[in-house]
Amino acid sequence: MGAEIKRTDLYEKVWQQPLRDLAKEFGVSDQAVGKACLRANIPRPGRGYWAKLSAGKNAHKMPLPFRGPGESDTIHIGRYEGRRRTEDDIIAEVPEPPIYEETLMAMRERVIKMVGKVAYPRTTTKTHPIVQNFLTWEESRKREYERTGYDWHKPHYDNPIERRRLRILNALFLAARGLGYKPEMSTKQHMHANRTASINVGTQFPEFELKAISPRGRIEQAKRLELTISGRHREPSSIYYWSDTVDSPIEEHLSEILVELIMVGEYSLRSLYQSSYEREVHWRDEIIEKRRQAILEQARLEREAIEQAKQARIDNLLGEAHALHQAETIRTYVNRVMAEHKGEDSQVKQWAEWALQTANTLDPILNRAYLVREIE
């Protein structure tokens, strides 16, 4: 079992009852609740808190910190597998637009303070594992190149621009890891052409590309580096591109770059929340409209049935009148035939009896067809 709950709601519940009681409510272990609180940075009562409350003493309740950038506001506890909602559930649960306790501007200020100054080590004495993998492959290629001379094994990072690129990546990766964000980048031996990396910011993975560029119109070796943060979910007013200039190399913007990467994670999360909200509203509106159309269609069918019943009654009335006219016509015809034969021909008499019996069968007054129609 498991549960899904808002971060603020879990915080309130954690401070309303002991963890073991809360775990029973969710149908999980108290360790599962504790891990969920740890992941969501939710403070829990310390030792002796409940004893102080029971004794009527004041017990300090720790405030809930702001959630981290890109971190979900919805917490899953235990093995939560979601819940199936019926159309009635969807209609009953009116979607609420996402609300944030912290504005993007306020979060940006907090992130700027958190990031501080990103160090730029000019040596590889302190190397992130991703960059170390590149360096390890580089040493392997050097040895093979010296042995074979094949261009296939030619080193990739033996020029100044590529060495700078590795140092910049190393600085960003180390700074991100120090803040609790996990960098990711392919380190396969033959992926040296890959220039795309990402940083795990909460539940989001903002990507950036750091590559060397050549002066426009020239074929000579690249002299500059440029860094671009990619993705659709970005703040329109923010900067997502940096390149070397004479007065300002990329190394001077590392703190700014890391701040923007973290904020892209938050902006992506909020964009997803907004999209989810709009999707829920649209889905609910569709179901309501579908049901409204079904009611209108049912009403139309009922009106048609009433009209059809009215028309059927009129058609039956006309049919009965026509049957009466046929019966009277048959009787007139029989009387004319009997008068012609003066009732002396036995064969004609038999025919007349049959004809009159047929007229009686058709006659709605005699067979009371009109009453039968009304009962039906």
Structure characterization notes:
The mean pLDDT is 86. The protein has 376 residues and is an alpha+beta fold. It contains 12 helices and 7 strands. Helix 6 runs antiparallel to helix 9 and helix 8 packs across helix 9. The strands form 2 sheets. It has a 5-stranded antiparallel β-sheet with strand order 3-4-5-6-7, covered by helices on one side. A two-stranded antiparallel ribbon has the order 1-2. It starts with a strand and ends with a helix.
Q: Low-confidence parts, pLDDT < 50 over ≥5 residues? A: none
How many strands? Answer: 7
Largest sheet: number of strands, sense, barrel closure = 5 strands, antiparallel
N/C terminus separation: 58 Å
- Mean pLDDT figure: 86
Considering DSSP H and I runs of 4 or more, what fraction of the residues is helical?
40-55%
Q: How would you summarize the topology of this molecule?
A:
Blueprint: E1 2-6, H1 7-14, H2 19-26, H3 30-39, H4 49-54, E2 74-78, H5 87-92, H6 104-115, H7 129-148, H8 160-178, E3 182-184, E4 196-200, E5 207-213, E6 224-229, E7 241-243, H9 254-341, H10 346-362, H11 364-367, H12 369-375
Antiparallel strand pairs: 1-2, 3-4, 4-5, 5-6, 6-7
Helix pairs in contact: 2-3, 6-9, 8-9, 9-10
Offer a concise description of the structure:
The chain has 376 residues and is α+β, with helices and mostly antiparallel strands. The protein has twelve helices and seven strands.
Key structural traits:
about 375 residues; alpha+beta; five-stranded antiparallel β-sheet; two-stranded antiparallel ribbon; 12 helices; elongated
